[in-house]
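ok so for the tutorial part 2 we go from a plain amino acid sequence to predicted structure tokens. step 1 is just haveing the sequence, like this:
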Amino acid sequence: MGERNSNEAIESREVCYDTLAQWARGKIQAQLQQLLEEEVTTFLGRAPYARRDAVSSVDPPAGSRNGYGKSRQFAMMNGTITVRRLRVRDLTDRFESKVLPLFTRRTREVGEVLPELYLHGLSSGDFDLALRGLLGEGAPLSASSIQRLKARFEIEYEAWTKRDLSNVQIVYWWADGLYVKAGIADRKSALLTIVGALTTGEKIVLACESGERESKESWLNLLRTLKHRGLRFPQLTVADGHLGIWAALGESHPTGAEQRCWNPKLTNVLDALPKKAQPQAAEMLKAMPYAETQADCERRRDAFVRTYRKTDPKAVDTLLRDWDRMVTFYAFPQEHWRHLRTTNIVEAPFAAVRLRTDASRRSKRVEGAQAIIWKMLRVAETSWRKLNAPELLPLVASGVPFKDGRMSRADGVTCHGTDQAERTAA
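step 2 — the prediction. this is what the tokens look like for a chain of 426 residues:
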């Protein structure tokens, strides 16, 4: 079981990295093209379609744009990017780009470090840093060019945070926070992130905003914002053990079911045990969330308690603390349990960021780290798999009860969720 989960985690990271590399190539292609546009704008002293006599500059250069020349392709280690060269007419001397030769000489090394280099630039909120890393310190990048590129990205994020959510129907959502050292403050800021599962089984990013230490106030502000934008809250929340999210949910969504992530729980219990006792305890603990019924899970819990109560009471207390939230997933379809036991749906994309901790630590601003996490989640979103048995999600959304993963009928008899879903649909 552990080996299978490990392989799944590795595959998830590989998919995330490949998707990220593809996205980064697209971004570099778009920004290189924009740099070529800005280079001509700077050379001519006016923006596209601006009349020469409307530009208030001293002795503006002659010449005007004349479309595009032949496309140029740059082969990298992890793919190819294509840009179009701009043409300028009515000049005494031919216009030659200063950017393209720099990029041509550096394509191989750029290809090797493209994702990390670009992510570093975003995570520090500094496009200039990333682009100069690509093109060299002598690259002709004007301050206005960099500001325009950064402004585009910020506008994209702002529009995303204000979109209407009244037509989005979610059944489950996963909430987690990533801590980054950003800004000049001594305190850490958390990026509060929520991923939701639609009734179709698709998973989407709902929120990624900075908050102070995952406090109740931070989570409450985020939840209120989502509700104000029309989002209907789901049947179940999956989150870790931070008290802030649970306190906020108790106030803003008291009727929703709550499931704690098993991963930190098991880690905390093992940390409370001596090393020599950890291998045996780990086997007992890992078997609990995979029990077929809640009663069986609690029998395994009781066996652990009997084994370690006298010798390691702290570990036992850690396991028992907030136990009701550990077994909530048994009240939902068994086909969905693998998705509901943990916050891995959010953690997997975060893993790519944590593998690049240097980038996060170099962040100058919280907004810079916020931007890169949000963008990575949106990129990962395009390759996320649907939840298992999506046909059961509308039943969960409508409040149909389940017990030990099976649907409960009015006469108290339980039946397999998929079979009952088919009969209901018929």
